[in-house]
Amino acid sequence: MEPHLTIGELARRSGVAPSGLRYYESLGLIAAERSAGNQRRYARSMLRRVAFIRTASRVGLTLERIADALATLPEGRTPTKKDWSRLSRSWRPLLDERIAELERLRDDLDSCIGCGCLSLQRCRLQNPDDRAAALGPGPRYLEGDSPGDAERAAG
Q1: DSSP 133
Q2: Burial class (CB in 10 A: 0-12, 13-18, 19+), 5
Q3: Where are the domains of the chain?
Q4: What backbone torsions phi and psi does residue 69 show, to the nearest 5 degrees?
Q5: Is the distance from CB of 69 to CB of 55 less than 8 angstroms?
Q6: Contacts (Cβ under 8 Å, ≥6 apart) of 79
């Protein structure tokens, strides 16, 4: 077995496009050695590291947060099961909030979301006079504000 992978091989095996791998490298998430011809060569262990990055991204973690987590590992070592457990415990509150956010979205998407659009018939009942706009930009009720919050802010 080849101890190192080309960027094309790593892309094929990891499911991340070469441009994505170069981006990860520019952020310091992965590292490559250079061949005599200045081509990138990745240690096989980078497959595990890229899998770790993809998994963490899929659960909603930012690349910045992933970089912070990877920085807690010894230089050049890929995450072990013990590392993943430690890191995932530290992310649990964030993941719980994201789950709650998705549940609110699922449950409230067909009702007023407090965006101030006034385009739905119900807006006159749920968000009279665009009171949700006083709470800030975006879908205020989906972001955790309530019609009562809008009432107090407008009042």
Answers
A1: G
A2: buried
A3: 4-95, 110-155
A4: -65, -45
A5: no
A6: 48, 49, 52, 70, 73, 87
Please list the alpha-helical segments (H only) found in 72-128.
Answer: 81-108, 123-126
Tally: H helices and E strands in the chain? 7, 3
Q: Which CATH number fits domain 4-95: 3.40.640.10, 3.40.930.10, 3.40.50.970, 1.10.1660.10?
A: 1.10.1660.10
Which residues on neighbouring strands pair with residue 41, listed in sequence order? 33
Render pLDDT for 77-132 as a digit per residue (tens, 0 to 9).
667 788 878 888 888 898 898 888 888 777 766 666 666 565 566 666 667 777 78
pTM (whole model) above 0.85: no
